[in-house]
Amino acid sequence: METLFGLEYNVWWFLVFGGVMTGYAILDGFDLGAGALHLFLKKENSRRIALNAIGPVWDGNEVWLVIAGGVLFAGFPVAYAAIFSAFYIPFIIFMIGLIWRGVAIEFRSKEPGTTWRMIWDFIYSFASIVISLSLGLMLGNVALGLPLSEQHDFIGDWLSFFNPFSIMVAITTLALFMLHGAIYLAMKTENRLYTKMTLLAKSFTVFFVVALGLTTLYTLLYIPHLSDRIRSSSQYFVLPVIMFLAIANIPRQLNKGKYFNAFISSAVTIASLLAMVAIEVFPYLVYATNDAKNSITIENAASSLKTMKTLLLIAAIGAPLVAMYTSFVFWTFKGKVELDESSY
Amino acid sequence: MEIEILARIQFAFTIAFHYIYPPMSIGLGLILVIMEGLYLKTGNKLYEQMTRFWIKIFALIFGIGVATGIIMEFEFGTNWATYSKYVGDIFGSALAAEGIFAFALESGFLGVLLFGWNRVSSRVHFFSTIMVFFGSMFSAVWIVVANSWQQTPAGYHIVGEGLSARAEVTDFWAMVFNPSSVDRLLHVWIGSFLAGAFLVLSVNAYYILKKRHLNIAKPAFKIALLVATISSLAQLFMGHRSADGVSKNQPAKLAALEGHYDSTAVADMYLFGWVNNETQTTTGLKIPGGLSFLIHGDFEKEVIGLNAFNPEDRPTQVNAIFQFYHLMVAIGLALIALTLYASWQWRKGKLFDKRWLMSIFVWSVLLPQIANQVGWFAAEMGRQPWVVYGHLRTSDALSKAVSANQILFSLVLFVLVYSTLLVLFLYLLNKKIQHGPDDDPAPEPIGDGNKRINPFLKQS
Fold first, then answer.
1. How far apart, in whole angstroms, are the C-alpha atoms of residue B200 and residue B223?
2. Helical H segments across A223-258, by residue range
3. Which residues from chain B sit within 8 angstroms of residue A69, using beta carbons?
4. CA of B147 to nearest chain A CA: how many angstroms apart?
5. Which H or E element spans position A296?
6. Least CB-packed of A52, A126, A261, B88 within 10 Å?
7. Per-residue pLDDT tens for B41-54?
8. Distance CA A106, CA B429 (A)
9. ipTM
10. pLDDT tens digit string along A42-87?
11. Which helix (H) or strand (E) holds B315?
């Protein structure tokens, strides 16, 4: 197969997909996390500030999911078809969660009544939790692999998605997003709310470390093949090292009041975690647990070489553009939240 | 069969509901660009208040459009896995391009549009408005390209056979500029301008009737009327071009649109009528040979009829297609009449004196919406039984891993959620309309929901 800078095109596209998913997890991760801990805030004013902290950017963050979907559809249509039809029920619930969450953010401020706002606060927070959990659940199951037919169609039962490993991944995901969200909110708030957020961020660091530790222990004990590649070469150990240093750096930076550094640290945590997952699954996109021959790989799921090339060109033009206007928007709304007449 | 019907109902339902919103976003986007442009040019505060008001409405529409749009992107994978594998090489690149070039642009700048008033200069804000509008226009480009490829495939070849057959791109630009994409894109854009313009016309006609916010309502009405008049006339031309394209590329669909069965006969054009698919007859008020003239410029020439196709290769719901198509055309013509008459009254300076005319405009918001919906229904049902015209049958395109019960479950869920969304949308839209733009300091009568409290400022 043809290569570009020494890597095959489908490997490049695997990296692009991984990159977009990481971008999505880092960006939507903080606003999902902020949503998940929304009910920890009791005062109306605090909730408004928290909502407006993500207000101008959450929609742009969600675009990364759309891009990830397009990237998977275009580059690995077989994987796109298999994954979404396999995860039919969890994915429908995920999408209904996305709808309600978006609507709750938009609608909450449109009426002043306390009951109205309480209901939307609950929907917003509950939907954020459901979305994070179902993302984690699907990630866990993809990492484990699914039973697939020769045509790569899922042939299992959807209740099997609720296995201990995937449930633990789901909880770890939620913990990580809540940690990430708390740090983001600390970055955007002042005074008492800021203090509260730093305390929450520290609690969620503990929550996350415990969840991650248990999941890792479970993986090493019961699913040893999920760490095969990392064990095969000690060079890969640099990733867990980076991750744990990043986690340890979070309370340190928070104590110093350097919330942006803390935010970068939690982003690095997310990225290194996903990198480890990617290293373990590669070159599989979905491993077939019933018969390895039926697995979906970056070879048999890939689009034609021509499409791969076109797509890389699209990505090469598009990525700097997206980076440009994403940073423009974040720069426009940098600093602490100030409520004005256009706020939520 | 049951799975197929359920999956089709679900797709039709979710896409039809979704399609209420993006056309309004596109059309309203254009009008926002005009309004804010006028504000920048004249410095007149009225235009600023007008823009701010319509941006709030835009946010509401955009929000639901995004929420329901994300569903669409993944529904191909969940319900139409075989189709996804078949077209991924082609359709996927269009969707990826949509995400990167259009949606990211639109959603990124939306934040500045909504919350940036005090953060950026008015020029940068105007720039953001333009970018959001462009983003929504680009979105339509890629979606219509993907759909048009299904109608008139080009720039591809089929690889593999049977279950593993799929289409691969051979020429990207031939795929993008397939025979129908440009005509259909313009048709969709103009339909969207109409949807946005008539929303603005309707709300302002309501204010004019109620004698509220007159200093803002009248100029806003004129801006929208201008857009609506030009668009409805342009749509006549584009509609004709689209139909002409259908006659060349999808003759079975064209025959269904006019209920034309017999290939050896001249084809008539109906103003309205009824098709009986059993007896293969169409009755109604018609221009004899009208379709022949439209296609060939000759009233005597034959047009390919439905009977030229095997029964399994042509649409079965001929009457529905016929009715949807004719309703769209009728609405298109009505919009031309309405906007031309209103423009003529505007020239005479009597536009706002005619209360009956304003009443019609209040309700006219439904017309482009209906036309957009039924137009797509005719286009998509007319393509049946194919999902990719001539290559992949709808019945072969389904997900093999998904059962009828799962689809039924999600369909019920979508119906419940979307009905709630619609109610909430209309409730909040009405509230915003009743509240109106923040213009005159004089308080309005309380009692009909017109509290002058700005919920955005309230700290409770």
1. 9
2. 228-232, 238-256
3. 73-74, 77, 95, 99
4. 15
5. strand A296-297
6. A261
7. 888 888 888 999 99
8. 12
9. 0.81
10. 888 888 888 888 888 888 788 888 888 888 888 888 888 888 888 8
11. none
